[in-house]
Input
Amino acid sequence: MNEIGPIEGVRREPTQKRSRERVERILSCASTLIEKSGSDAMRMSDVAEMAGISIGSLYQYFPDKGAIIRTLAERYNVLGQQCISEGLQDVQGKQGLRLAFGELIDVYYAMFLAEPVMRDIWSGTQADKALRDISLADSRINGAVLAAARARVDPKADRDELEASSFLIMQLGEATMRLAISVEREEGDALVEHFKHMVLREMMEG
Output
């Protein structure tokens, strides 16, 4: 009896590790395929072949292509949320907020430009309700972080107003990024700068 427990524990742990590694391999292969040809052209059979697994095994982890894309989208969102949270956590004063948030806009835009998979996923957000819901939840989370930073800078400000406007700022920011990557680079850069100036002016005057 004393030997059974350890043996069972050893068997479960490698299985869980292999499962995690397989999921990571699937997502990595999907990202490669999306970067190469776009998410519309990606097929589950291609993902399975590149990952070196059967199509049946792939479906055990992801029931359809949309599940893969949503998982990738959520991962990019987590990275963005961490970036925003870290960028705003030590903000002091309106000028500090202005500088920090302006830098975050530049960083976020750079992320979109640098990640073909991120660009592909979010360019199709409006056509996919599940992705729209993910996008909306992401804007609410980031908006709450921004609202908290603005409240620290101006404790007397109306918190409901801060939360509403911060949510809107984040949602408009994402829409701006999608627009910016849909046009020529020069025009996209200019659009992001216009958004930055508009939002910073709004926050400084609020």
In short: Confidence is low (pLDDT under 50) at residues 1-14. The longest helix spans residues 4-37. The CA atoms of residues 2 and 29 lie 42 Å apart. DSSP finds nine helices and no strands in the chain.
